[in-house]
Design brief:
- The protein has helices spanning 4-14, 41-68, 81-87, 100-116, 130-151, 164-171, 178-189, 213-223, 227-238, 302-306, 323-330, 368-372, 406-419, 423-431, 436-442, 445-450, 497-520, 526-537, 540-547, 558-564; strands at residues 73-75, 122-123, 126-127, 153-154, 176-177, 251-253, 268-270, 284-289, 319-321, 335-339, 345-349, 355-357, 360-361, 373-377, 389-393, 400-405.
- The chain is mostly helical.
- The protein has 3 domains: 4-227, Serine Threonine Protein Phosphatase 5, Tetratricopeptide repeat (Alpha Horseshoe); 259-403, no CATH class; 404-570, no CATH class.
- A hairpin with a 2-residue loop joins strand 12 (355-357) and strand 13.
- The two termini are 39 Å apart.
């Protein structure tokens, strides 16, 4: 989708002011027309396009910071000073990536639409603008969640701001933390849980530009530590009768026809939601389209920070997978399945070497790494301005950026279910997938009874042929692994089942968060996933110790570790 002039006009005429300048009180603020109601389809479309236009910058910004702050990304010597400051948590209010006004710009455009849309207008018994009204509330919730993840606490502004004095008044409100903001916004969205996203046809605004209400609610509840409602929201979205969401079979694996790991028997990809086709893949639930020309709106910045391009960066990248990212992928146990001509099956460990030759590497452990990362040396003259190394990260596209995809929703469902004391069900998502057969095989009768409200997966729509564990996307036939990738058990029997579950929950949570790193690497979630668990456990070291291991040597960066043990240093600073 191209927002083109229509979005520019919308943003310029209706949405220019917004909270985009709410924290920049020296600037002049152009006012909305306070009494201008939104009463026709054209105005509605313009406003939706305008909101999405403002979201372009925010979506990439959060994805950038969410990885640069994490343990999965390292900066190169070509990185800007602002990127380096992000990486070492010394960014100031002048850092080019520290613009809270961009988030309030989205929020205020949404607030304006919510306040002015004529939700009483009926056509053939249907409220004409209800879907757009709800979409604006979802976009506002999304923008607030992105912002509060970056800043820790923010004023909660839910009415449109039309001038400088009003902006100053709003920003003097006591700031709210992430739990408070998410709880408020979840209550705001809850009445609209069954509302569908707008449908204008793909030539105007594709449906994938809108975030389903249940998915947004799931995230809000998860951050608010309301695991019952988080699990219900994710579960209801995935099992919706009109549009069920089985995991499908996506993986990179070694072929089953040989016991040998050789260059000839190299791993192959089956419908992986990565590589060059990652953006817009069937895995995608919601995405933000980006522009090919700056005149039309925001062009991708992430793509050229991670990807070599002779025209944009002389093939020198600013960001690269960290040593620790490679270690996380390498330490996974790959389970290989060999099937002979008589259909006899045998399971083996994966290869213990990481590279066969210059063109066939990253073979040890989980294979998802090699599905999105390519690095190769090219012949350059010694005086060439271009890098002799070319890096390609297939998760990025100049066309757009995914903000939600199915596998990550499954993992967040697992996170919520595990916190409800259903570790077997969470483990089933990781290792097998959820369908009737797997539920009865791998979840005991006690947990099946207790978690029954989350275990009604239609046996026609969710089957063993369209369902798999998320870990199997890159770690082989994990369903056959009875030694390494298993539900944690105490060394000796504990006094009660409840004690055993209490022992398992944090360990399964660790497995889920690591799986989020494997599945969602570079997609912008890693730092926030670590933050969520650290806040939940009231354990800053959960985040600090992992980020301090970023270089992959196994020795933590002492200065970074000390810095991140103080939660205040996790967030970007705001102007006083």
């Amino acid at each position: 989708m191209k927002l083109r002039n229509i979005a520019i006009a919308a943003a310029a005429t209706l949405l220019t002011v917004s909270c985009g300048d709410m924290l920049d009180t020296d600037s002049s603020i152009v006012e909305f027309e306070k009494n201008n109601r939104i009463t026709d389809v054209a105005d509605t479309v313009y406003n939706m396009l305008g909101i999405i236009n403002t979201m372009q910058v925010v979506a990439e910004r959060n994805a950038l910071v969410g990885e640069v702050h994490s343990d999965l990304v390292s900066i190169t010597d070509k990185a800007s000073a602002d990127l380096k400051a992000l990486a070492d948590f010394t960014a100031t209010t002048d850092n080019s990536y520290n613009r809270v006004s961009d988030y309030y710009n989205v929020i205020n455009t949404c607030n304006n639409f919510i306040a002015k849309a004529d939700t009483t207008l009926m056509l053939k018994g249907v409220k004409v603008f209800k879907r757009e009204y709800v979409a604006a509330k979802v976009f506002r919730a999304w923008a607030y969640l992105q912002a509060v993840q970056l800043y820790g606490k923010l004023p909660l502004v839910t009415t449109p701001v039309y001038g400088e004095s009003q902006a100053q008044k709003e920003m003097q409100k006591a700031p709210s933390d992430i739990k408070t903001i998410c709880s408020y916004l979840a209550e705001d969205l809850k009445p609209y849980v069954n509302e569908r996203v707008p449908n204008y046809g793909s030539s105007i605004i594709p449906q994938s530009s809108f975030i389903p209400v249940r998915v947004m609610l799931g995230d809000l509840y998860l951050w608010a530590d309301d695991y019952e409602n988080a699990a219900k929201s994710y579960y209801d979205y995935l099992t919706l009768q009109e549009k069920p969401q089985p995991t499908d079979f996506m993986y990179q694996r070694w072929g089953t026809g040989s016991k040998e790991f050789t260059a000839e028997n190299h791993p192959s990809i089956s419908s992986m939601a990565m590589g060059t086709s990652w953006y817009g893949h069937s895995e995608a639930i919601a995405n933000i389209a980006l522009e090919s020309q700056p005149y039309y709106g925001h062009q991708s910045q992430l793509y050229y920070l991670y990807n070599s391009d002779v025209n944009h960066n002389n093939s020198y990248v600013s960001l690269t997978p960290s040593g620790q990212m490679r270690e996380i992928f390498k330490r996974q146990h790959y389970t290989h399945l060999y099937i002979d001509n008589n259909n006899h099956r045998d399971t083996l460990d994966g290869p213990q070497v990481d590279q066969f030759n210059d063109n066939l590497k990253y073979l040890q452990g989980d294979l998802r790494y090699r599905s999105f990362f390519t690095e190769k040396k090219v012949n350059r003259d010694e005086y060439s301005p271009y890098s002799p190394w070319v890096q390609i990260i297939g998760k990025f596209s100049t066309s757009g950026f995914n903000i939600y995809r199915k596998s990550m929703v499954y993992l967040r469902l697992a996170e919520a279910l595990n916190r409800l004391n259903y570790p077997q069900t969470a483990m089933c998502i990781l290792k097998y997938g959820l369908c009737k057969n797997y539920i009865y095989e791998h979840i005991d009768s006690v947990e099946r009874q207790e978690a029954a409200r989350f275990l009604n997966w239609d046996e026609v729509k969710f089957t063993t042929t369209n369902t798999m564990g998320i870990h199997g996307h890159g770690s082989g036939y994990v369903e056959c692994d009875t030694i390494h990738y298993v539900l944690p058990q105490p060394a000796t029997a504990l006094a009660s089942r409840q004690d055993t579950v209490a022992y398992q929950v944090p360990l399964v949570e660790d497995m889920i968060i690591e799986e989020m790193a494997l599945e969602g690497a570079l997609e912008g979630n890693r730092f926030y996933d670590l933050m969520r668990v650290a806040l939940r456990r009231d354990d800053p070291d959960y985040l600090a110790e992992r980020v301090a291991l970023r270089d992959g040597t196994g020795t933590p960066d002492a200065a970074l570790l000390a810095l991140l043990r103080n939660k205040a240093n996790w967030y970007l600073p705001l102007r006083k």
